[in-house]
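Re: export button greyed out
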Amino acid sequence: AQSVSQHNHHVILSEAASLELGCNYSYGGTVNLFWYVQYPGQHLQLLLKYFSGDPLVKGIKGFEAEFIKSKFSFNLRKPSVQWSDTAEYFCAVLDTGRRALTFGSGTRLQVQP
Amino acid sequence: DAGVIQSPRHEVTEMGQEVTLRCKPISGHNSLFWYRQTMMRGLELLIYFNNNVPIDDSGMPEDRFSAKMPNASFSTLKIQPSEPRDSAVYFCASTPLGTFSYNEQFFGPGTRLTVL
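Workaround output, generated via the alternate export path:
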């Protein structure tokens, strides 16, 4: 069975700091990877996704993620965070057989002004 | 498009009562997913439907939980009887069904369930 590990449970940054959130997956099939964001009190929204091709994926709001197959990683990055990026971030892998997402435990990001 | 619609947004009930959560997927989406989010277990898939047919219910915690999708525009998740450990946020998501490509899952706002 596939699994997703997010090692940072709570990250606190100051505005303009750079962000990198770790995500490692365990899955033997074709890998489809996602980052979702959940702003306080809101539902999950897709930040970016990787299916194939360029391992560096650009998403919305200045986020990007790099798929490194040899490391089974899909880390999320942003060069300069803003207070409005305060949210919980979830990495997920698609089980192409079940067509369902397996989510990591989430990383709560707090950006201080 | 109104997006995925869930009701109620908040539900507070007493242990032993029946709870019904409702979901209306985005029009034209024929895959529907129910997830549960708790502090302890994070986001878990409970069940999903393709073309109104339950495909995988292995995430449903126990027989107290049941889900139906009587038509393409409506699904329910029922808990009977409810227990305090069922307290969580329940999300519904939908996506178009593609054979060779995967489409983004669109999530509803969730139902925050509190069982006293």
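The radius of gyration of chain A is 13 Å. The button fix ships in the next patch.
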